[in-house]
Specification:
alpha+beta, Cytidine Deaminase, domain 2, 2 domains, six-stranded mixed sheet, 19 helices, 6 strands, 10% strand
Length: 406
C-alpha cells in the first residue's frame, strides 16, 4: 500500500443492480457497507472487510486502544485473522475503515501508517491480498486516508451522513439489517417479552424455593430445556410451563452452573460427565471447550438455544441470577465473534452489580469474559471461518431454503 497516491484500486463489488453499482471507492457506499455488515456504525474501532469475487466475508472489528498501543502487533494479528491458517477462503483484498474521534488534519501525523503498512505486508505474505481502500471516519466526516491532496479531498472530508444518505437513496437494500448495535442488544435482551404477564412473574417468584441441585440434577433440567428449545426453535414455551423455571434459575445461584452450561452447549452432556464431573477434572479440556482453544467448533444450535432460553428467563430472575444470565450472554456474544456486544454485556454487569464486581474473590463470570476480550481479542472459533458461528449460520439458513420452497 502506498501513502502518496490517490489512484483508486479497482476492487468494486458487483452491482446490486446494473444501474447503481456499489463501490468501495465511494465514501458513502463504503461506510454504508460497514454499517450493513455489522448492523451499526462502530466507534473508536478498526474495521476490516474481506473481499473475494465481489463478495464480502472474513469481517473484523477491534477496538483502537490496543491498535494505538502496538500497531505492528495489531497489523500482524489482523492479517492472520483475515487471511491466515483456517481463514479459507481467504480474501483477495480488504476494505479498511478507521473509526476515530478526531478528524484527519493536514498538520497531524499519519497515526496509522505503521498499522496499515504492517497489515498490507502481512496480507501480501499470507495470501497475496492487498488493501483496496482505507477510509477514515471521525466527528461526522469521512476522508480517504491515503489522499494528501487538499484539492482532491478537502479536510476534514465529506460529511458522513450526507454521503451515506446518498448511497441509501441509490441502494436501499443497504438499509435493511437485522443487527443491533451493542447497547440496543443489551436493551433487547433485558426487555420483558410481551408473553410474560406480571401475575406469572409473581407466581414464579412465590413458588417454594427448590432444594439445591447436584451437578447431575442441574445438567438434567438444563439439557431437557435446551432440547425442548432446539425442537421449537424458540424458548417461548417456558412461559406456559413456568413450573420448570424455579429449578433452572435456582441452579444459577451456584458459581459452577455457568461452566456446566458452557460445556453442555459446546460439547454435550456426555462430555460434561466425563471431563467436568470427576474429582480431578481435565482443566485443559475444559478451557478448550469453553474458550475456543480447540479446532472442534461448538454445537452452535445448542448455543442458540441457550441464548434464547436466557432471554426468556430474565423477567423471573433474582439479582444474582440476572448477573449470571448477563455473564453467559457476554460469553455467547464473544464466542460468536461479536466483541462489541460482548463488551456491552460485560459493562451491563459492571454497571448493575458494582459491589460484587469489586469484591475480591467473588466469581463474576463477566470478569472472566472481559479478561478474554482484553487478552485474546477475537475468539479462536470466530477467527476460523469453518468453525465460526457466522459460517454455521449462513449454511443453516441456506439449507433451510433448499429447492421446493418458495
Amino acid at each position: 500500500m502506498t501513502t502518496s497516491s490517490h489512484i483508486p484500486q479497482n476492487h468494486d463489488l458487483p452491482p446490486i443492480n446494473h444501474a447503481a453499482p456499489l463501490s468501495i471507492n465511494d465514501p458513502g457506499d463504503a461506510l454504508a457497507l460497514v454499517q450493513h455488515t455489522f448492523g451499526y456504525l462502530p466507534q473508536d474501532s478498526l474495521v476490516i472487510i474481506g473481499l473475494l469475487d465481489g463478495r464480502t466475508g472474513g469481517n473484523l472489528r477491534i477496538d483502537l486502544e490496543p491498535v494505538r498501543r502496538n500497531p505492528v502487533q495489531a497489523g500482524v494479528r489482523c492479517a492472520e485473522w483475515i487471511a491466515g491458517a483456517g481463514a479459507e477462503p481467504v480474501p483477495e483484498a480488504v476494505l479498511v475503515a478507521i473509526m476515530e474521534d478526531e478528524p484527519l488534519s493536514p498538520e497531524a501525523p499519519a497515526d496509522h501508517d505503521q498499522l496499515l503498512g504492517t497489515l498490507a505486508d502481512r496480507l501480501a505474505e499470507l495470501a497475496g491480498a492487498q488493501i483496496a481502500q482505507v477510509w477514515y471516519a471521525a466527528a461526522g466526516y469521512v476522508r480517504d486516508y491515503d489522499c494528501h491532496d487538499e484539492h482532491c479531498c478537502p479536510y476534514p472530508g465529506t460529511e458522513l451522513h450526507s454521503a451515506m444518505a446518498a448511497t441509501w437513496e441509490r441502494l436501499p437494500v443497504l438499509l435493511r439489517t437485522g443487527e443491533l448495535d451493542p447497547h440496543e442488544a443489551v436493551e433487547e435482551f433485558l426487555a420483558v417479552t410481551p408473553l410474560v404477564a406480571e401475575h406469572r412473574i409473581r407466581e414464579v417468584q412465590q413458588q417454594e424455593a427448590c432444594p439445591p441441585l447436584t451437578t447431575s440434577g442441574a445438567l438434567t433440567v438444563w439439557e431437557a430445556a435446551l432440547v425442548r428449545t432446539e425442537g421449537a426453535s424458540s424458548a417461548e414455551w417456558i412461559h406456559s410451563e413456568t413450573q420448570r423455571i424455579p429449578a433452572l434459575l435456582s441452579s444459577l445461584d451456584e458459581s459452577w452452573t455457568p461452566i456446566l452450561l458452557m460445556l453442555l452447549t459446546t460439547r454435550g452432556a456426555e462430555f460434561v460427565l466425563t471431563a467436568a464431573c470427576p474429582a480431578e477434572p481435565d482443566e485443559q479440556a475444559l478451557r478448550e471447550a469453553i474458550w475456543g482453544d480447540s479446532p472442534l467448533p461448538p454445537r452452535w444450535e445448542s448455543v442458540e438455544a441457550l441464548d434464547s432460553l436466557l432471554h426468556e428467563l430474565v423477567p423471573y430472575a433474582s439479582p444474582r441470577q440476572r448477573e449470571q444470565l448477563l455473564g453467559l450472554k457476554a460469553w455467547i456474544e464473544w464466542i460468536q465473534g461479536s466483541g462489541s456486544r460482548s463488551a456491552a454485556f460485560v459493562e451491563a454487569v459492571h454497571r448493575e452489580f458494582p459491589q460484587r464486581w469489586r469484591q475480591a474473590g467473588y466469581p463474576v463470570l463477566a470478569k472472566t469474559v472481559e479478561h478474554y476480550l482484553q487478552a485474546v481479542g477475537v475468539c479462536s472459533w470466530a477467527r476460523v471461518k469453518q468453525s465460526s458461528y457466522s459460517w454455521w449460520k449462513s449454511r443453516a439458513i441456506n439449507s433451510s431454503a433448499e429447492p421446493g420452497m418458495d
